[in-house]
Design brief:
Helices cover 36% and strands 28% of the residues. The protein is α+β, with helices and mostly antiparallel strands. The chain has one domain: 4-Layer Sandwich (Phosphatase 2c, domain 1), CATH 3.60.40.10. Strand 2 and strand 3 form a beta hairpin.
Amino acid sequence: MAEFVIQVGSRSAQGLRPNNEDRFVADAARHVFLVADGMGGQDCGEQASGMAVDIIPRVLHDRLAAHDDAGRAVQQALDEANQAIINAGVRQCTTRRMGTTAVVAVQQADRVYVANLGDSRAYLIRGDRVELLTVDHTVAAALARNGTLTADQAKNSPWGNVLYKFLGCAEMTEGADVRPFTPEAGDRLVMGSDGLTNFLTDADLREGALLHRNPQEWADHLVESALRRGSKDNVTCVVVAFNRE
């Protein structure tokens, strides 16, 4: 990755919620990027997302320093965060389930490894192409993938907010799938909580990558746009730009 300069922009807004349960990591020095959207109310949600942004980068750093395979290191980091949040929920959130989504990206050598649990997303914008790198782990999205619901039906389904995979899920039998890609000059990686991505279109991402060359400027614009369009949730965005030196 020596041929790239990595620049990062980030923004998190409380929006209309009484508190902000989103947390993020935008560590350009270590090339670790993460968005977590807490679930379970103020105490439980904030604690879960806070644990995710503490545990995942730490485990990634330790595993990569030990020369583990990067994809496996991402899975291990998510597994350890999941178990820690389950344990904390048993002790501290006995009346409500404690959990958080997570979407994480880490650069190692010439590749970037992306994984998610829940419905926080990562998009790769390359030229005029927008690619969703993650899968929403909602019941409605799963029903759409198997053909039970159409895309429009899934969008308006009451199951759209019901997650079957997330950090803190004791019933989860399969971990995260890791999606690697090899970055090219000019690429943009956009990561966000559903308070952001539910109010984004591919056209927004395609046009925004051209209009907002500064990643911090674009992150601010994306969050403000989601709020203007009616997002009532916490809204969090991390933008990673891969530029030539």
